[in-house]
Design a protein that fits this description.
The chain has 212 residues and is mainly α. The protein is 74% helix and 0% strand. It has a single domain, classed as Vanadium-containing Chloroperoxidase, domain 1 (Up-down Bundle), CATH 1.20.144. The chain is globular.
């Protein structure tokens, strides 16, 4: 039971931090948000903005879509090969991915935070960062079950991709720093709670994971 309570407690704490942060930053930007916003003012119009735009195009909402398609194909192939246990794990990871991705869709209207510059949709949390973080979270959980030896590498790649995406959105002046932090808090919180509900966390020590 302790193994289950740990991710639940962490998930609740992260979601609480996400909500508190969202409430605190709903007004005029201050602190790091204001300082970074002033320092990067109009940088999005120059070479840095062009590079950030490329990163943002690659590391963004397209990732969870591609990941979802790959997971659906994987489920079909695993079932065709008679690997029902692995197919069920991948199906649950797909549900986890969708739950994490939904955090920005649900939360943006609730906090209704304005962007640093005129731009469609609300700011908190960053949908791009949510997209990258939820894809990384799902891949890490999938590796925990089906490829434990790849977990460490998956974590490093997920963290790096999330940081790059966050930086690109800030340089493009379409998000505040706290929008990107909130995105990570939301994804990790929902990911942990959904992982427990879907019986993906903590990962099994035997069965699918050990036989893969």
């Amino acid at each position: 039971m302790r193994a289950v309570r740990t991710p639940v407690a962490a998930g609740v704490a992260l979601l609480a931090a996400f909500v508190v942060l969202g409430v605190l930053v709903r007004g005029e930007p201050y602190g790091p948000d204001a300082l970074i916003g002033q320092a990067l003012h109009d940088e999005w119009r120059g070479p840095a903005g062009f590079l950030a735009g490329v990163v943002s195009a690659v590391l963004g909402p397209v990732l969870p879509i591609v990941a979802a398609v790959v997971l659906v194909v994987a489920v079909l192939r695993l079932r065709h090969r008679g690997r029902a246990d692995a197919a069920r794990v991948v199906t649950r990871v797909l549900v986890l991915l969708l739950a994490c991705r939904a955090t920005s869709w649900v939360a943006k209207p609730l906090f209704a935070r304005e962007r640093p510059r005129v731009y469609p949709d609300f700011a908190y949390p960053s949908g791009h960062v949510v997209s990258v973080a939820c894809t990384g979270f799902a891949i890490v959980v999938l590796c925990l079950w089906l490829a434990p030896r790849l977990v460490s590498r998956a974590v490093r790649i997920a963290v790096l991709a999330t940081l790059l995406c966050a930086a690109s959105r800030i340089v493009l002046d379409v998000h505040w720093l706290t929008d990107t932090i909130g995105a990570v808090l939301a994804v990790c919180g929902v990911g942990l709670l959904s992982g427990v509900a879907l019986r993906l966390l903590p990962p099994a020590r035997r069965g699918v994971a050990s036989s893969a």
